[in-house]
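Curious: why this fold?
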Amino acid sequence: MRSDTVRSMLMFFEAMGRTKEEMEKPMIAIVNSQNELVPGHIHLDQIASAVREGVIAAGGTPFEFPTIAICDGMAMGHAGMCYPLASRELIADSIEAMMLAHCLDAMVLVTGCDKITPGMMMAAARLDIPAIVVNGGPMLARRLGEGPPGALLFELSGCGACPGLFTANSMACMAEALGLALPGNSCIPAVYGRRLQLARQSGVRIMELLNNNITPSQILTKKAFDNAIRVDMAIGGSSNTILHLMALAHEAGIEVNLELFDKMSRTTPRLCSFSPSGPYFMQDMFEAGGLSAVMKELSLKNMLHLDSPTVSGETVGQIIENAQSTSRDVIRPIDDPYDKEGGLAILYGNLAPEGAVVKKAAVRPEMLRHKGPARVFDIEEEAVAAILGGSIQKGDVVVIRYEGPKGGPGFREMLTATINIVLTGLEADVALVTDGRFSGATSGAAIGHVSPEAMVGGPIAIVQEGDIIEFDIPKRTLNVKLSQTEIKKRLSKWSTPPLKREVKSYLQRYSALATSASTGAILKLPSP
């Protein structure tokens, strides 16, 4: 046992009230991201307590420690948005530090929102010791009808992650689809007793994983990532899942690239239509049969690797064998999907040689193809001021650059810009193209992750006011109507500008080490 190393320090544990008998058992970490700032995390002490009971019942000794959690919604619209994605690496690093410094045997990862779940899974892959993920679950929501201009209005009830298929719930689905969480992790509402049951079961199961030496490397195989990407496309998940799955694959030593996402998208029907781009919430998925029912539909067309193992001890095929959808609207049959293709698309062209990402499921049909003049802004706030000031006209393409991993720095969400495009009634006529990223709540023709980003001299850096930008999402193209000669000429005159905002030390380090969005915006040391 890893914990044998620290048992020699028994006197310290006795000073904290631990008994000799407790210290003779496996030492299980409960990594808890609870805090009093984030709705998706406020209740996680309850989840952690249930995990603790399960660990004790199964013969382990639990040790809880915290990690940070930032709410993207609360960080929106100000400089705080530089931090959420950058916190993903801090979370993974902090878990690594605690686990290795204290030589714990296994860990249960109690998580809630957007960057916390992938950060925790990255730590699990990196450490490769027995681990299991337990999400806090989604909020309940009550529909209040349609609001201008067609936005779904709803009222939130209780704690939990945002109720639609935003990034938090998308990543909870990914944890389950990958096999790192027990069935039901993705959509059991936060306030339901079954969520606490799942937590207790996870506490028991971590002991079984430890006793059988089942580690993440046995779960996070290429087949597991194929399954997760298929599921992601079928449910219409957040565009942020691409960043997080690529970062997790990097930690797991698995090759996952943008081409794989696009291949899966082209061949996976979208079976669900969740808020913000559809009428349903995660509680509807739960009542309709859960993620297992979605996966069952995919299996009918041989779209999943059914032999992939999971932390439950069963294969994917065994888990979904008896699953079925109880609603043909919430989870469409495989032969009658919402869309014949998946929810995300990868675009390429002279404006995005390394790729760009769009949530195709959230784009109006009339905006799947568009051509218009560029309205160029070097920071989101300037673009928002122009949108609200009425200077953006129908047909325009709003270009926001220097918002990528290095340029932001921190790869901010451009949700303030997209929301204001919607609220000013321009969603059906105006597109947004950026090297920044988007929230799972984004709707409209919002094309992000343009790579290479402007800060490293990507072609988006030399777009000028009035240049014609053209995209065709079905054909997966994104171009500026300039010759390669003109692009090279402009780039030859371009030089790296200073950051657009003053940043503190961590963001300076992040900017220096962050890689392209096309590789998951992971951190890498510079080559010697």
